[in-house]
Amino acid sequence: MQKEDYQWVIVALGILVVIALIIKPVATHEPPNFSIPDLPALPTMPALPSAPQPVTTIPATMVTTQPVTAAPTPPATAPAAPTSTPAPGQTLLVWNGSTQTVGFVDPSTYNVNLTTYTPRHNEFIPEFANQSSQTSIRSKNYTSLLKTPITGQWSGTTQVVDIPFPYWELWYTIEPTASDLSKQGEASGSYVIQPTQGQGASASGAQGSYSTVKPTFTVDIMEGGNSSRLVRMVTPMGSIDPALWKDNDPRPWKEKFLEGQKSYYFIIKAGGIKSYSLDIRVPNNYLGKI
Q1: Is 53 part of any domain?
Q2: Which residues contact 12 (CB under 8 A, 6 or more apart)?
Q3: Structural domain tally of the chain?
Q4: CB–CB of 254/169 below 8 Å?
Q5: How buried is 225 (Cβ within 10 angstroms: 0-12 exposed, 13-18 middle, 19+ buried)?
Q6: Confidence of residue 225 (pLDDT cuts 50, 70, 90)
Q7: Beta pairing, strands 142-144 & 168-176
Q8: Could you identify which of 93, 134, 180, 236 might form a hypothetical disulfide with 130, taking C-beta atoms 3.0 to 4.6 angstroms apart as the criterion?
Q9: Residue 131 vs residue 177, higher pLDDT
């Protein structure tokens, strides 16, 4: 760069200075600005936490007009023994520790006509299956719920009996009119053949009409709160013939019921027998627990 060039650069810079310091302030009526631009602010440090001040607590004073009494604690009770599940609207029975007296009532109480009544055969219901031969109850000792067994000779209907246990047994026995049915006459209900003399025939009995009567005994167990429900029909297995019982007497017959805590009544149909007896029994280990 030559010397003349340097001179022109200096002249140009001088002109700029004159414009900035003299001409511009005169034109804008503002004094020339000789201040230094502001520097950027430095970052501020976070304030240190102040020391915690001690807090003085003043105990409050409770003013009551009546003494406060704690609620009494209810006495502990033993858990209830397991029971059957009641149907809607049904109340399960609880044993009061007393035996019952059960007699006979007019059959019309249950709208029953014993002259025309036919024992109802059991329907196949799963709850009946194997109840008489299988049970989970293990007990050798039983107690009767009746003061005296239900006894009689003829057909009849009993009063309602309460059975407040979930398991019970019906023990019953029959006494035929004679110890040998072959010696039992028709009037007392045997099935011995008795010929009647025919017209113009000999009196030997070789000819004539014959009639037979067989001893019968059935018990329909009905639910007391539902007279249309047959719980079970009970009848002795095999023939009612004491001659067949000399070596193995099946009496008393025992029917097991895996239901209870309800009321029941019995419809008894009997014919050709001397007497019968029914008893309701429960295992001894139930007593005092339910």
Answers
A1: no
A2: none
A3: 2
A4: yes
A5: middle
A6: confident
A7: unpaired
A8: 134
A9: 177
